[in-house]
Amino acid sequence: NIEALFMRFERIKVPRDKVIIREGEEGDFYYVIESGRCTVSRQIGGSEMELAELKGGDAFGEEALVANARRNASVAMKTDGVLLRLAKADFIELLKEPLMHRISRQEAEAKATAGAIWLDVRYAAEYNADKLPGAINIPLNEIRNLFGSLDSKKEYIVCCQSGRRSSAAAFLLSQRGYKAYLLEGGLRSKAANSTASYGSGGNQE
To answer: Which of 39, 43, 62, 92 has its Cα between 20 and 30 A from that of 53?
Structure first.
C-alpha cells in the first residue's frame, strides 16, 4: 500500500495566497504539505477566523473525504510551497479503508465492558441532551487540538448521531496511532439505540 500510495500522489507547486480548499465545497483531494505553510480558517459569525497554521509534513482535507461531507474550513497558502495531493478515490482505497475499524453495537458493548472508552464527537449540546453513560465528549471540530488529552494505551469507541462525524474522528485518531473503533451506523441506528449496558470503560483517569 505504501508504494502504491506514493505513486498516486501528485506533486504541485502553489503560490502564496492560493486557496487550496474552500469551506462549503465538496471534497475532492487529500493534501500533504511538502514545503511551505498554510492557514486554516472558518466563517464564524460572519467573519473569517484563522484557526491554525500548518507546516511541512502536515496533512489536511481528510475529514470531508472520510465523512463524505462538505469542507468544514478553508485552507490557503501563507507562503509559496509544494503540496502532494491524492484524489478522493485513491484516498479511500489506500488510506481510509485500511485505517478504519468498524464494529457493531454488540462488539462495542463488549469492548466497553473490557475497559474501552466511549468517545462522543457530537457538539456539546447534542451530547448533553442524549449522552451515553460513561462517555466522554470531544466534538469533531476540537479533536485535533485535544489529542494530547487522550490516553494512547486505551481503546476508544467513537460515535456520533449518524456515523459521519465519528468516521472522520476515528480516522484522525487511527492516523495518529490511537486504538479507535467506529460504531457502525451511529447512535441513531436502531441497534445502537436499544437498551444496553455500556460498560464501565468510560471513566478516564
So the answer is: 92
Whether domain 100-183 has CATH 3.30.9.10:
no
User: Is the pTM value of this prediction over 0.85?
Assistant: no
pLDDT at residue 76, as a whole number: 98
User: What CATH number has the domain spanning 2-97?
Assistant: 2.60.120.10
According to DSSP, residue 187 is labeled T
For the chain, the maximum distance between any two Cα atoms, rounded to a whole number of angstroms, is 55
Delimit the CATH 3.40.250.10 region(s) of the chain: 100-183
Q: In degrees rounded to 5, what are phi and psi of residue 104?
A: -80, 170
Cβ contacts of 171-177, under 8 Å, gap ≥ 24: 171/62, 171/66, 171/96, 171/99, 171/100, 172/62, 172/63, 172/143, 172/144, 173/143, 173/147, 174/99, 174/100, 174/101, 175/62, 175/99, 176/147, 177/152
- Model confidence pLDDT, tens digit, residues 100-143: 899 999 999 999 999 999 999 999 999 999 888 889 999 998 88
Residue spans of the chain under pLDDT 70 = 1-2, 189-205
Handedness of CA 18, 23, 29, 31 (dihedral sign): positive
Which helix (DSSP H) or strand (DSSP E) does residue 21 occupy? strand 19-21
What pLDDT is stored for residue 67 in this prediction?
86
In DSSP terms, which residues pair with 52 in a beta bridge? 40
